[in-house]
Specification:
about 525 residues, alpha/beta, 2-enoyl-CoA Hydratase, Chain A, domain 1, 3 domains, 8-stranded mixed β-sheet, 21 helices, about 15% strand, binds hexanoyl-coenzyme A
Amino acid sequence: MDKNQELKDRRSGSMLGGGEERIKRQHSKGKLTARERITLLLDENSFNEIGQFVEHRSSSFGLEKNKIPGDGVVTGFGRIHGRLIYVFSQDFTVFGGSLSEAHAAKICRIMDLAMQNGAPLIGLNDSGGARIQEGVISLAGYADIFYRNTRASGVIPQISVIMGPCAGGAVYSPALTDFTIMVEDTSYMFVTGPNVVKTVTHEEVSSEDLGGAKAHAEKSGVNHFTVSNDIEALKLVRELITFMPQNMDEMPPSPTKFSFNRSKLDTIKKILPENNSLPYDIRKVVDSVIDDNSFKEIHKDFAKNIVIGFARVEGRTIGVVANQPESLAGVLDIDASRKGARFVRFCDAFNISLLVFEDVPGFLPGTDQEWRGIITHGAKLLYAFSEATVPRITVITRKAYGGAFDVMNSKSIGADLNFAWPTAEIAVMGAKGAAEIIFKREISKANDPKEKWLEKESEYAKMFANPYRAAERGIIDDVILPEETRSKVIAGFKMLENKADVLPRKKHGNIPL
Ligand code: HXC
């Protein structure tokens, strides 16, 4: 046979993965194939495959007679918006996308290249887990991947998309990466599936309830983004990449075109309610400061009392962290602290400046929070901000109480600029509670204790429920009108463009995990 023809035949054979029948089955579940996914993910005709003819080396259970080129994962490199990207895409039509020794080695090769060349790694996961016929060898393959995920953490951005099963130890690769995207109805993640759960704990639970996109978006926080199908998932990766640099030594893409609707300068004046105990949506404040339609919220269904996401000011990427008065009054609890801390660390690792909006009444009280370790988890956020060397600006819109004031990117923990609106209340605690404690005797001895309490409350509020005590001490840098926020933030980040700050020499810190 003509040698060139042989190559062409081998190529087209490998394109079919597990064959037409299994491709049909994949489509009937609403899923795309591994190759279709890569085509949609990358710029047109930019994919270069590596390892197309790799086969497994197993001879157990008759596997030697069943070899499919590529061995259940398509790997290679390509471009997203012209930028170099490495990708692996598991092929469920080949042994259920299960991970063999050879399959793992292909993924590791791509990861090594991504690290050596400083470009993001995208993993499209759709796999029945360890290749059962190979046993322990495939377990070692997983560990090889986990090791590389960890080594790559903070060096190159890593994004995992879950587009089918992801069970057992396999879940730990996505967990080690920076962002996880899950497709509704067709993906799930769990350490042990419903059958094992039933045997061990006698709980009856479906795959979807146990580890579907919604469960992980709302309850565990494992899932950062829920999307309704494969196409949306791949579009989202393309969008996320636009906010990130290629690696830790680069800056996020330089200013892209932007617009800012100036009517938002009017809108921002009217967002806060007259009554300072009423809620409002902090996302309206964020939206009124950043470039039009530039906010990409992350983890939006998890710990709604804190809002995080990428945004742009004058075209440049920033990371936004904001208390959300609309949910639990914006209080900090365990989940909010974990959510905020992880995002702050991503931004700091990849040279993304941080903009914090603060309206926080404090930490959430109660036995549940204390016994589950709000002390340790709250400290994560404190640690993450304290450690961050990127430019950092805080805007206090309303409440900034107690320890939560310190934690939310205060100047004492290294923020570069802190602004407060005239509505800011910066104090140890709310006036009501404060009056009750420090004027306890006076109130109890009064003819009308309730009236006395009110009088003392307003005395305390007058003293501290404003930004000026803090401004007098330089604890905040300026009191600004809401409509001045955008221009102050832009000027601030410009001023901080060449900020150079280094951490003390150490092997690594010991964040309160
Ligand atoms: C080898 C596998 C496989 C596996 C699926 N297949 N999982 N082959 N090893 N782990 C094959 C099937 O034999 C079948 O082959 C094809 O993939 C499609 O599988 P189906 O069962 O027909 O598909 P579906 O009904 O959609 O069910 C998908 C599934 C199920 C839920 C993933 O296949 C399943 O439960 N698989 C086993 C999952 C598992 O227990 N994995 C090991 C977990 S332990 P044919 O030829 O018929 O198309 C683990 C440890 C990792 O992963 C530890 C890391 C530290």
